[in-house]
Amino acid sequence: MPPSGLINLYKPAGMTSRQAVDRVERLVRPARAGHAGTLDPLATGVLIVCVGSATRLIEYVQQMPKTYRGMFLLGRSSLTEDVEGEVTELSDPPVPSREQIAAACRAFCGEIAQRPPAFSALKVAGRRAYELARKGKPVELAPRTVSVYGIEVVAYEYPRLTLEVQCGAGTYIRSLGRDLAESLGTAAVMAALERTAIGIFPIAEAVAPEQLTCDKWTQHLLPTLRAVEQLPRIDLSAAEVARIRNGLRIARPDVSAEHTELAACDPAGELVGILTPCGGGALKTLRNLPV
User: Fold this and answer.
1) pLDDT tens digits, residue range 110-124?
2) Which of 174, 219, 262, 288 could tie 190 with a disulfide, CB 3.0–4.6 Å?
């Protein structure tokens, strides 16, 4: 089997997430590759690329909390909600104080309803929203519930406002800036965005695309187990691994039934699958990972 694992990749500005994955995929063939969490071309920072059997665990990485640092220009608006679109300056907009901004940020923490931007990859009647928006067609995207764990004002010198945001999957930072500004009686466009962490993967450990070469890319491959480090771990014997490989249940009355998912490892500590209790002290396979 070709190597499997995760690459903590630093995505530069101007590169799409798909282009970043394509670059990795050319190196790892015949293995597949996929990313966990899209970054807009404007944005930079952490992009986790799953390689080989680790692609089966993309959703677990997507569920990890994310940290962003975004810079916004207040008193301005654009259809794209960032500087990629045509920016219009408001006439005599209010200039909020840092204290007013910090107070407004608190109202956007927790579970909030957020209307995604019209220029996004979400689908409307089978079409990408941005495709319709670019043609000037109306795009109606329903608000979605997203989780925002914290917002901090990092720097502020009007009109530039820099925020650090910790949030869950599906949160649009430019839309958060839009809504925050509207609550202050003004508008905002996002001028820069950097994802500084996805769960346990910090930007300080991210590797630049040019560092991935045919002879050295495996040096940057992280263990597949790191994709599910948030799950309880269970160590299996060689006999139990063989049963799991064949789709059979294993008896483990020592495992609490309260755990809905467990990361199962072989005697060498390699992740072999995701298991779940199925009654009577037994476990069955949710996901098998080939070796």
Assistant:
1) 999 998 876 656 565
2) 174
Helix (H) or strand (E) holding 144: strand 144-157
The residue among 195, 254, 200 whose CA lies nearest residue 231 is: 200
Does the active-site annotation cover 215? no
| Same domain, residue pair 179 and 81 | yes
What span, in angstroms and rounded, lies between the C-alpha atoms of 288 and 291?
Answer: 10
Residue 17 lies in a domain: yes
Per-residue pLDDT tens over the stretch 6-28 = 999 999 999 989 999 999 999 99
Q: Which residues fall within 8 angstroms of residue 257, CB to CB, at 6 or more apart?
A: 277, 279
The residue from 40, 82, 179, 266 that is catalytic is 40
CB atoms under 10 Å from CB of 243, counted, come to: 16
Q: How far apart are the C-alpha atoms of 259 and 232, rounded to whole Å?
A: 8
Structural domain that includes position 246: 231-288
Which SS3 state, helix, strand or coil, does residue 266 take?
A: coil
- Compute the distance between CA of residue 142 and CA of residue 166 in angstroms, rounded to an integer: 23
